[in-house]
């Protein structure tokens, strides 16, 4: 069955990116490749960008600015026939708002990674690359009701990888020789504290999947790369909606508003 998967990025398209420029396309293309490989040949994968991006994603108030542009892109995706949305940022920005606003399923990559980890082991830990994002991921861990499935001490760790990630998608040897060793420094600490599964919490770590990495070296601890987990979750939910009419509950939490009401009240912001 052919489904249309809309992959939503938090940043502008490379050609419009005022911070990183056209080179940012390497990251977007790498993430999209993971989604396409997971979704299969019968899926149509399209990208959505955020030309109103505030660029910074490590603080809640900056996330709020980013969410406005993302929501506009998501409304357009639904209007253009998307069957499912995948938000390709480790902080899962605007996830709950999008579930409330849209009729189609909305998937967050890190929530997907956490949920998969619950199947693969008793306790998991998250590893990201930016210390400022850790508190946002911890917030999400609580929101998703998964605190008891994570390790007790420091369930969200940060690898020493606060750097330009574009090169990760251009130089595979850099991932093998630099990214994975630093990622595993954080992962080994989490394993010592009881983690049976490691989950990534940054979209740029899709570079791990592109390099065939899925287990912490010298252990039997799986690494759930969240873009990969989210891609399979999106594919499944897209099919379930299209074939079985199964989608987000609109009973209470994600009830939302009628389309005509949304259009009326947002009209001044869209002029």
TrEMBL record:
Its EC number is 5.1.99.5. Keywords: Isomerase. GO terms for molecular function: amino-acid racemase activity; hydantoin racemase activity. Pfam families: Asp_Glu_race. InterPro entries: Asp/Glu/hydantoin_racemase, Hydantoin_racemase-like, Iso_Racemase_Enz_sf. It is an enzyme of class 5 (isomerase). Belongs to the HyuE racemase family. This is Putative Hydantoin racemase. It comes from Denitratisoma oestradiolicum.
